[in-house]
Amino acid sequence: VRFFLLEDYDIPLTKRYAYIETDGSQYVETSFIPSGHSAVEMQLSLNKVDSSVALCCARTDNPNSFTVFYITGSGWRFDYYNVGSAVGPVAEVNKPYALRLERNGIYLDGSCLSSRTPVSKVSGRSLLLFGAKNGNEPLNAEYKASMKLYSMKAWRDSADANSIALDLIPTEHEGEACLYNKIDGTFLKSAMS
Questions:
Q1: Global confidence as pTM
Q2: CB distance 157 to 38 below 8 Å
Q3: CA dihedral over 190, 102, 183, 32, signed as positive or negative
Q4: How far is the C-alpha of 29 from the C-alpha of 123, rounded, in Å?
Q5: What confidence tier does 144 reach under pLDDT thresholds 50, 70, 90?
Q6: By C-alpha distance, which of 152, 187, 128 is closest to 19?
Q7: Which of 28, 4, 25, 5 is nearest to 152 (CA)?
Q8: At residue 128, what are phi and psi to the nearest 5 degrees?
């Protein structure tokens, strides 16, 4: 994991970085369990687009998922409760994207790519960043993403701005690159597979 200095920030004893970068072997476990009403926003870029990867994932099995994949040559796929269809546009390497996932669909740079029918429960498992999992374990190394994450936010209820559970920014803690959750003051560190 590499990180790059951006500016001082309101993080105890550390600095804020422009992004955290994964090479396709790391993942970060969060404690956030999405519901059918949740929303997630990610500012990201992909380091490569020649393999299908999961950007974030909370699932047990199908159906029961809140997961977004980038599918090589096909576009973005949001598995909300059940498996979705990949929709364009095809990603470009190192191009920044603003991705929003919510019960009404998947949005890329403000445009709706695909709408979904809202349900009340989607997974029951916590959200994993940079990879896919089944149950409590990462599913498969081929789904881990080589990407840059600039920021990420997650809300328990997309209609309630006060329900924010994650507001993640790249930083370091105890000499390791990690994500700092501004909501509860925790540092989320990478796990290797």
A1: 0.87
A2: yes
A3: negative
A4: 15
A5: confident
A6: 152
A7: 28
A8: -105, 135
Closest CA to 183 of 32, 20, 4: 32
Residue 137 CA to residue 128 CA, distance in Å, equals 9
Amino acid identity, position 14:
T
Rounded distance, CA 139 to CA 74, Å?
21
Residue 142 burial (CB count, 10 A): 12
| Cis peptide, bond prior to residue 63, ω within 30 of zero | yes
- Residue 98: strand pairing partners: 43
What is the C-alpha to C-alpha distance for residues 80 and 77, in angstroms, rounded to an integer? 9
Distance of CA 149 to the CA centre of its chain: 8
Model confidence at 4, pLDDT cuts 50, 70, 90, reads very low
Instruction: Kindly state the DSSP code that residue 103 receives in the 8-state scheme.
Output: T
